[in-house]
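Q&A log
Question type: sequence-to-structure
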Amino acid sequence: MKFIKAFLPHLMILLFFAPVVSAQERLKYQPPDTRILFIFDASQSMLGYWQKNKKIDIARNVLIHIIDSLETVPNVRMALRLYGHQSPVPPQDCSDTRLEVPFGDNNAPKIRQKLRYVIPKGTTPIAGSLEAGSKDFPPDTENSRNIIILITDGIEACDGDPCEVSRKLQEQGIALKPFVIGIGIDEGFKATFDCIGHYYNAIEEEKFGEVMEVVISQALNATTAQVNLLDINGNPTETNVNMTFRDHNSGKIIYNYMHTMNHRGLPDTLVIDHLITYDVTVHTIPPVTVKNIKLTVGKHTIIAADVPQGTLKVITKDGHQYRDQLYLVRQAGKKTTLNIQKMYEEEKYLVGKYDIEIPVLPRINMQNIAISQNHTTTLEIPRPGILNIIKSSTGYGSIYLRKSNKQEEWVCNLNPNVKIETLLLQPGTYRVVFRAQNARQTLYTISKTVTIVPGGSASAQLF
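Response status: OK
Response body:
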């Protein structure tokens, strides 16, 4: 059949509708199900003639032909909802919509049978059918594409708003933007259907089958894209960063990929669903998001993100006492912590300026540290010394960094539950203030001054 021959290339893409992976990984990969809900107009107007034949006969014969073609396609599931087929007009029954064949395995014969014997009777509740159709899909959407194909010969005849219903379906992540196939509809109504979804109008009887084939091809096809992670010079040299593809309308995560350069040194090609409008977040530090990305089937799309990066590392001069020390990194002038990094380890950041907070004693703050393209910024802090504190008994005390005779900076409180305490302190002069727990008068406060040198050791005897 003509359709099957035309569809084979698209079927091959569908079978490999997945990130490019190794042969071993592909064995474990489960391609997504494409679930197609056909919403079929069986209103009274479908009994009218369209050139040579009745519209209902033309539409049902073409749809049955499509069902035949899809029956053996892997990972395709189908369901059928009819409207306007239960209650005759007049009077008008705007609740006349029903899921006649739910999603399931090997249900193509049931769909064909239902289509062969449907008799048009009633009105055209498009909005109500779309809204009811949202409940026709199985709740599991983790590895599936939910697609609605609406076939109609008229506009909304009830009080519903099909455009608003379609928008909510997409925002909630229930279904992708619907396909709408018009049967001889006046071109003046194009705007009415464009807001619902991808609109195709068959003006002539013989064109209807071609339109259906195009829609099915669009629904099952995939396209290619690549993400160019641009450096400071606008070249796609950045890589090895995770990327999240989200549905722009619903926020649902569709793909997670680790950016890769192929064997030619170019960003690797991705095979992705073209029916979705994407927001792509590149998880650099801080992350960068490119919004509202639209793809065209059969066209290779390049998605560019400006993510120039450099590297940051903090070390201790002449020593490794802070080997397991963590520190905080923030964008310059901002309070939000971007990252908690380990000393001596390298981490990439976007080119720019950052504030660093190292929670040693006393706390070290560095402002406006510049990160530049392809350069490792290495910050060096002094080697600490050791302060041994010996108390006559448990008690209360604090340590202050002496900056001058008039200025001191609080560093930390002493542990009130121990008599011997050891602290790592940055080089400097400190004052230790202490009062024993059983000393009930303030005048028994003890004050000692000690000097810490890099790599050295000092003692404070508090008795």
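Response note: Residues 223-306 form a domain with the Immunoglobulin-like fold (CATH 2.60.40.1120).
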